[in-house]
Structures are given as structure tokens and as C-alpha cells.
Amino acid sequence: MALWSNTSMRPALRAHLQSALTLSVAALVLLVGWAGVAEFPWWAALGVEPQLWWHVIPLILMAAALLLRIRRPVLALLLGGLIVLVDLSIGVNVGILLCLSDLVYSLGIRGGRRAVSITGGVLGLITIGIGAGSFLAGVEWRAAVSLSLGGMAVLLMPLWWSWEVRRGYPLWQEADARGQLEAERHANVLRAQARKRHEAVEEERRSMARELHDVVSSQVSAIALSSGAVLNAPAESARDREALRTIRITSVEALEQLREMVQLLRGETVDPASGTALEAATWDQVIARARQHGLQVAIDGQPPDGLSPAVRHVLLRILQEALTNALKHGDGSASIGVRTRRRRLLLQVSSGLRQEEGDVVAVGSGTGLTAMRERAEMLGGTLRAGPSRGDEKTWLLRAELPLKEQNDE
Questions:
Q1: pLDDT tens digits, residue range 327-339?
Q2: Angle between the 113-136 and 157-167 helix axes, to the nearest 10 degrees?
Q3: Residues 6 or more apart from 142 whose CB is under 8 A from it?
Q4: Around Cβ 190, how many Cβ atoms within 10 Å?
Q5: What is the torsion angle, in degrees rounded to the nearest 10, for the CA atoms of residue 327, residue 331, residue 333 and residue 339?
Q6: Which residues contact 269 (CB under 8 A, 6 or more apart)?
Q7: Are residues 96 and 59 in contact, defined by beta-carbon separation less than 8 angstroms?
Q8: How does the average pLDDT of the chain come out, rounded?
Q9: pTM flag (> 0.70)
């Protein structure tokens, strides 16, 4: 069982793995012809001759009963017992008896203590009744004992094993064997904890990379664009001083936000009164900064009030990155559309791609798009970006976010 617990298999699939294997063995028993057909008198009275393939019908019904063994173990065992009686009316099929043992074991693991105790008593009486009834019916005593032992193996042994598992130790275990099992269990716990720590570190690294990109990328890109525009144009004192003023403001904001992010990562307190906290930017401020750097922005709609801090933060980060990309790779204009639909917030940003020598200019490495997509998916949303359908000269970004965080619903 420890082998499967360390895999990445889905819990629902892993829970039914034992049943799937048991059904596979039962089907194999039928395929190789190991199941039998008995000449019971009721078939002769009906004028019907039983066939081997008839065992397939109870096996299909048993598969349905096995699906109930996780949440309704008592009901699954009752249905399984009736199905076994139907199958025994045809003949002996060891495969379906294995399925019944699976149901007994499942009840012993998942059933309440009272249900397990009552089931143990009932199964014990059934086992004794099988032997006694066979003997009274005229069956040779050796055969009666054999049937009783078979009933014990199918009904009582799985219940006993499940009870020992619930207790945590196999019965009559030697001290050194118990110590070995405890060491293995402890090692499994340590490995699971180490794996969780590694995953937490990796997630923290990804979060730091996203924050670094978001904090620095847009400001540095704006500085590069503003300085490039000034350098490529004839000298003009008033315009150049305004560009230098914008570059200085942007660079100071970038340094301040970078400093605050480092403080947050260190666990230090950030003073919100400074006016440059990472969460201080608003929807209008993000758009105003883009316009300040020369981007023509058309707006259709506004985000609703009352967004949770996490959704609002991701929305602004996506908008900021989309407008930065429009500045870097676009034709100088961008259109923003905001809609709400069925508890979802839809953000759409489109911009024309800059043309160079008749070809569409390349659109970067995709690091920002990856960060935006990860942010959206963390909230349970989606993000798609690429050339617009039917117009490869237009870049379209479409983000869909929940109006509330999933944990808040």
C-alpha cells in the first residue's frame, strides 16, 4: 500500500484500484474456463441448461456493487452477498468470491465499529452454517469441513486482516518486525514531508520570479521606450526634459517597489503610508501610467467594486503586463474591454502589432505571458493570448477570473 501512496495517481482512481484488479482476476477466471456450471435441479425443472457465460451477468452486477464500497460499505456487502447467491445458483465461480472478499475487507476498513462487530458475528454464523448445513444435507464430512474452511477464507479472513490494519499492527507481531514496520512508516512520513517542502520551495521560487517580473519589467520597459524615443528624435529641450522627468519617476517607483518586495519576502513590515506599496496601484493608475508613456488606450467597461484583494491584484498585474506588451510590441494603441458574466470577470486587451519591413515584429520570450497565466490559474481562472482570429496583425489577450476567490465561495 505504501508503494501506491507515494505515486501521483488521483485519489479516486487509487481508491478503486483494488476493486479493478479483483474484477480483472474474476474476468480472467471466466476467460480461462475455471468457473464451473452445476446441474442443479431447478434448472432441470425449468428445462434450461445453464451456460458458463451466465457468470458474466453476476460479475457485471458485482462491479456496480464494488463502486459503492467506498461510501456505502454495508450496502455494498449486502448487495454483493445477494449477487454471490445468484452466481452460486449457476455454479462455482472463484472470481466472484474474490470480489466478495474485497467487499468484506472494505467494510472492515471503512465501516463503523458496531457495523464491523455485527458483520463479524453474522459471517461467523454463516461460516458455521455452511459446514453444518452441508453435513446435514448428506455431504461427506471431509467435504463439509472443506466448505466451511472455504467460507472462513472468503468471509472471515478479510475481516480479520482489515481489523488488524485498523489497529495499526498485525496480530502477534514480533518486536523486531514491529520496529521495522515503524521505521518504514516513519521513513515514508519523512519522504512525504521532504516532498512537500520541495514543492513549497519551488512554488515560492515561481512566486518570486512572477513578482520580480511584474515589479521590474513594466517600469524598465517604459524607461527603455521613453529613452529610445528621445534618442531617435531631434533634440528638443522641453520634450527631452519631460521625458527625463518621466524616466526618473518611473525608475524611482521601480526601485521602491523592488525594495518593498524584498522586505515582504524577508517578512518585514511595509509601511502602506509610503504611497508606493505593491498593492497601492489602482485600475485608473495603471491605465494613466500607460498613457503617460505614450500609449493610446480605449476603455470599454470598468471592473466591479468589491473584488477580493487577490482577484484585484491579479487583474491589475495582467492589465499592467498587457499594456506593457502593447507599448513594446504594438502600434501605440490598445483597447480594453471588461465584462462580468455568471460570477466571472472577463478582461480583453487588444492591440495592433508593430510592422517592420512588411512583417509583424516578434513578440518577446513569453515570460510575462507565462507569469500571467500562472496567476490566473492559481485563482481558478484562464488566460489566452495570441494573434486574433482572422487578423494576425492584431494581438488579443483574454483573461477570465472568478469574481471571488475559490476559498471564499
A1: 878 888 899 999 9
A2: 160
A3: none
A4: 10
A5: -80
A6: 263
A7: yes
A8: 77
A9: no
